[in-house]
Amino acid sequence: MTGGAGFVGSHVVGALRDGGADVRVLDRSPAEWLDADTELVEGDVRDAAVVRGAVEDVDAVCHQAAKVGLGVDFGDATDYVSHNDTGTAVLLDVLWRRRFTGRLVLASSMVVYGDGRSRCPAHGLVAPPPRRAEDLRAGRFEARCPVSGCWAELAWEPVTEDAATDPRNVYAATKLHQEHLCQAWGRETGATVVALRYHNVYGPRMPRDTPYAGVASIFRSALAAGRAAPVFEDGRQTRDFVHVRDVAHANVLALTGDGVEPGAYNVASGTPRTVGDIASALAAAGGPDAPRPEITGQWRLGDVRHIVASPRKAADGLGFVAAVPFEEGMAEFASERSPATAAP
């Protein structure tokens, strides 16, 4: 397990251990979430010598190590490519030289879809183009039909794994490249490669107070400081928020399930929520004195408007169905007080 001391990775390790698996973790960060019986190799996935020792005698690999988040600006590009692309390439090269043919599960992301799947009232299903800065400045946040002369507002539809990929930022590009590298390795070795496309993961141990924190973590940190949660755009951006324990369960199924077919799988709750819903749920969990969310109208050019998954393939192919109710998960997340600074 690469990145097994981090937010998602540590939950996957715990779920595997609960099921009786022996787990070896490769991580360069302190292993504060790992129990004493979990073997730890401290080091960087970009270091081939460290990776060679870490994968010795393993029969499956779960690759969670990555630099996550949308980043600050394009100045982050080299760091993202180094951690995500190069780190994955080093891992795969070591596995190839070891003639490893076991199962590989990759932590991918819904960001590979861009704005996902949308429908125009006149032209049916279309691929929404990147939103224009001049529209965002004017408060026109909805994606528009790309057909010449139309420009109608689009309505989102659940995105399936066969949808065209369209990464809109550096992080998204590296996650898609990770998938491509793993697929190429799988074709050469005959190994089963499963890419789990996480949607918006939240829950205990989520990193906070960094430029790369997820929106739920940003909202929670604001409320903890007595400030209103700052909601970008108009708060109607649609996402699928899935609890980290559900994500861990999906990884266990992908790693250990019988007859798992290679390919990409959405890991999502199947229930869309707006960004404004998240801010309101966290504020409600903070009690009557918690400040209400503030709609700021701010925007980031690399953000997508709507991305909601179809969970059907994961249900059919992995047996995965999200189980943590949204209200319960958000209340737990809002009340967490322990430091959540683990690496991704």
Question: Strand order within the widest sheet?
Answer: 3-4-8-13
Report how far apart the termini are. 13 Å
Segments where pLDDT lies below 50 for 5+ residues?
Answer: 338-344
Order of helices and strands: HEEHEHEEEHEHEEHEEEHEEHEHH
The whole-angstrom Rg is 20 Å
The number of strands is: 15
Number of helical regions: 10
Could you describe the largest sheet, including whether it forms a barrel?
A: 4 strands, parallel
How large a portion of the residues is in β-strands, by DSSP E? Answer: 15-25%
State the shape: globular
Query: How would you classify the helix and strand content by structural class?
Result: alpha/beta
Quaternary structure: single chain
Q: What share of residues is helical?
A: 25-40%
Overall residue-averaged pLDDT value? 92
What is the gist of this entry?
The chain has 344 residues and is of the alpha/beta class. 33% of the residues lie in helices and 16% in strands.
